[in-house]
Design goal:
By secondary structure, this protein is α+β, with helices and mostly antiparallel strands. The protein is built from two helices and nine strands. About 14% of the residues have low confidence.
Length: 154
């Protein structure tokens, strides 16, 4: 017997290693999202359309598709929007990370929807925590725990 001979099992191990590496590469490439990661729109470069409001008591309000409830954050500190038949504008600050404070708001106060819808509009002046997740803007009122969920309108 030759001392330089290799055991029979070693001959099979190398091809199996290559197949294993190739298989892992296929898995990694195949599991990636083909459209790429979801880009979160900028808070200030987007028209945000209200989808729902969740109240502290657990009840909620969902916006009918034929109505517009919007908010636009315009740099450096102006907000504008439409609340059904009302239009408004005001000012805001971003005091800390994920903190938003709507300081003043003014606009029309026509009672054009259901009473609770008008109350949501009239109560916009508040402090919020916000986050941008999967293209949505989520505002949480820090004193009432009301949660506003907006989607990007642009």
């Amino acid at each position: 017997m030759n001392d330089q001979s290799t055991p029979a099992g070693t001959i099979l191990v190398r091809p199996l290693r290559y197949l294993l590496v190739i298989g892992i590469l296929f898995l990694v490439v195949g599991c990636q999202n083909p459209s790429g990661p979801v880009d979160n729109p900028s808070l200030t470069a987007t028209q945000w359309l209200l989808q729902s409001v969740k109240f502290a008591d657990g009840s909620d309000f969902h916006v009918d598709q034929d109505r517009i409830f919007s908010i636009n954050f315009i740099e450096p500190d102006t907000i504008r929007g439409q609340w059904d038949c009302n239009s408004y504008q005001g000012s805001y600050t971003l005091p800390d990370d994920n903190a938003l404070e709507i300081i003043t708001i003014g606009g029309t106060k026509v009672s054009c929807g259901l009473p609770h819808e008008n109350n949501i509009y009239f109560d916009l002046i508040a402090a919020y925590k916000y986050n941008l997740i999967d293209g949505n803007l989520r505002l949480v009122n820090t004193s009432t725990d009301m949660v506003y969920v907006f989607t990007s309108g642009e």
